Amino acid sequence: MTRQSIEHCCQTAKERYAEFGVDVGKALESLAATSISLHCWQGDDVGGFEAPDAQLGGGGIAVTGSFPGKARTIEELRRDLSMAYSLIPGRRRLNLHSSYGDFGGRRVERDEFAPEHFRSWIDWARDKGLGLDFNATLFSHVKADSGYTLASPDENIRAFWIEHVKRCRAIAAHMGKELGKPCVHNLWIPDGAKDETVNRLAHRKHLQNSLDEIYEVKYSPDHLKDSVECKLFGIGSESFVAGSHEFYLLWAQKNGVMVCLDMGHFHPTESVADKVSALLLFFDEILLHVSRGVRWDSDHVVTLGDELRALMLEITRADALGRINIALDFFDASINRVGAWITGARAAQKALLYALLEPTDKLRAMERDGDLFGRLALLEEMKTMPFGAVWEYFCQTQNVPGHSDWMREIYDYEKKVLKLRT
Ligand code: RNT
Ligand code: ZN
After folding, report:
1. Distance (Å, rounded) from C-alpha 307 to C-alpha 351?
2. Which of 289, 292, 300 to mutate to test the pocket of ligand 1 (most atoms within 8 A of CB)?
3. Exactly one of 45, 191, 262, 392 is catalytic; which is it?
4. pLDDT at residue number 118
5. Contact yes or no for 185/218 (Cβ under 8 A)
6. Is 111 a catalytic residue?
7. Measured between alpha carbons, how far apart are the two ends of the chain, in Å?
8. For residue 302, which of 310, 314, 290, 313 has the smallest C-alpha distance?
């Protein structure tokens, strides 16, 4: 498509949306102002750069597939990320796990991680104009082998991980300060058990105490935003997960910390979208892990599906875009990893654009007036509006190729870069 035809199609779309009172220009402004945090771990199957290489394990996160081209070094990962960013429109951030530090080939224990190990990432992010987000890493480690970290009955194990998370929050605050944009530090722990667990209360009490100690240290909200992420179950933690939704919801609310809603961390028929309007009444901000579970928390590449659209719609309907932190969380090693990143990020943005183009005022009026047929019919009609034309135009204004053009660049990168990594 030529520039002109993209503009022409968007102009026609604008007129159609205007019939429903939707201002396309305003929707595009909001989309351009919303940042998506790209997770570093899609690039190397959650491997990280600690020496010697840690094995992924614990808590039921698993990557499947062996597509060639996995990033083996920080340089390769940065190159792949740069490629991905060049094909994702709008504002972007980078979400780092602490195991991705620049340790210079040396063995640095997790309770010794410090800002200096992330200096080169901060410089890189600054150079690219990216904000940084951060995560403590409490899996793929011998001290997590029992299945418990912060909720462990072993005081030494707990102390080790408490120190790790404390340091990670300090690193995150440092990143936020250095880059002049608050850094979101998210905490997910694998703690749980495969089978019937009798002393659930004790594990949760340990977790509560660990969190109380960790978050006692306060940082400026201009530098750091904290969040905690619950989970329903994982492989090897089918019967019990200490950090459940209820546990974290209550702890976080009491302690002024955000909760992270991962789209794969609830019962498959439970609507994550429906949680938004409840949480917004009790929390200033929310973190989302945009993911796609297929039958379970499978972390498939995000696509533009009903659940994702419903989630974005709940955010825009609540006029809460400014209170939501959007991060991606999936890992697929069975397809081109860079292509996977871009597909997922663009799907999240498309879902948001779809939501921003909803004639919410009109729908609300129908609902208020009892026109429930009209509400349903209009919601249905919106699904076939020329939303793709607006998306193409958005990509063009952001100097990022639309539709199939970006796929060609990925095939090319695969041939010239990824396939050579053996
Ligand atoms: C695991 C959580 C968590 C991780 C990352 C790698 O189930 O979703 O967010 O995916 O920390
Ligand atoms: Zn997650």
Report:
1. 10
2. 289
3. 262
4. 98
5. no
6. no
7. 37
8. 290
Residue 183, beta-bridge partner list: 224
188: annotated active-site residue: yes
222 is catalytic: no
Give the predicted TM-score (pTM) of the model: 0.97
Q: Closest by alpha carbon to 284, among 327, 324, 244?
A: 324
For residue 62, how far is its CA from the centre of ligand 2 (angstroms)? 13
pLDDT recorded at residue 52:
73
Q: What is the pLDDT of residue 303?
A: 98
Q: Which of 303, 278, 277 is nearest to 290 (CA)?
A: 303
229, 314, 358, 414: the active-site residue: 229
3-state secondary structure 8-56: HHHHHHHHHHHHCCCCHHHHHHHHHHCEEEEEHHHCCCCCCCCCCCCCC
- Identity of residue 223: H
Task: Extract the tokens encoding 325.
Answer: 């932190």
Which pLDDT value is given to residue 60? Answer: 65
**C-alpha of residue 190 to centroid of ligand 1, in Å:** 9
Question: Consecutive sets of 10 residues in the chain, 422 residues long: mean pLDDT of each?
Answer: 93 98 98 98 96 66 92 98 98 97 96 98 98 97 96 98 99 98 98 97 98 98 98 95 98 98 97 98 98 96 98 98 98 98 98 98 98 98 97 97 90 98 88
Structure token digits, residue 262: 């991962």
Q: CB under 6 Å to ligand 1: residues?
A: 41, 46, 61, 97, 135, 188, 229, 231, 262, 289, 297, 329
Active-site residue, selected from the candidate residues 50, 133, 178, 297: 297
